[in-house]
Amino acid sequence: MALVSSSVLIPPTRVIQVSNVSIVLKVEYRTLTAPEIANKKLQLLQTRLPNSDVAVDIYQGPPAWLNDDFAVNDSEVSWDGLGLGDLLSLGDRLRITYSAEGSA
Questions:
Q1: Helices and strands in the chain: count of H runs, count of E runs
Q2: Model's pTM, two decimal places?
Q3: CA 37, chain centre distance (Å)
């Protein structure tokens, strides 16, 4: 799959209805930019549900582990001082999966 821009949001793949709220599984395919590499963090394109899991995979690389390789604060993914800190560089591609409120 070719990327057309530095950040592409893939349509939700799964929707779970809980009461009056829909929980949507979001998948972002991101190509890291110079500011993201310099700051060692990125902002998710959608607001993540509080306390929901976040998965990060490096394209053609191993999965990354929460709190070992990256950290999540609200909708910010950071890797400063963690395992990904010395691995990621400009142009690297990540797949980030998380839950958000929304509809299909």
A1: 1, 9
A2: 0.76
A3: 14
Residue 78 dihedral angles phi and psi, to the nearest 5° = -130, 155
How far apart are the C-alpha atoms of 78 and 102, rounded to whole Å? 24
- pLDDT of the residue at 104: 53
Residue 76 carries which side chain, given as an amino acid letter? Answer: E
The rounded distance, in Å, linking the Cα atoms of 5 and 93 is 12
Partners of residue 24 on adjacent β-strands: 15, 100
- What CA–CA distance (Å, rounded) separates 12 from 54? 15
Q: Helical H runs in the chain? A: 34-39
pLDDT tens digits for 14-52? 545 555 567 888 999 999 999 999 999 999 999 898 888
- 8-state DSSP, 39: H
**C-alpha to C-alpha distance for 16 and 37, rounded to whole angstroms:** 34
Closest listed residue to residue 76, CA positions, set 38, 36, 103: 36
Identify which of 78, 91, 3 has the alpha carbon closest to the alpha carbon of residue 41.
Answer: 78
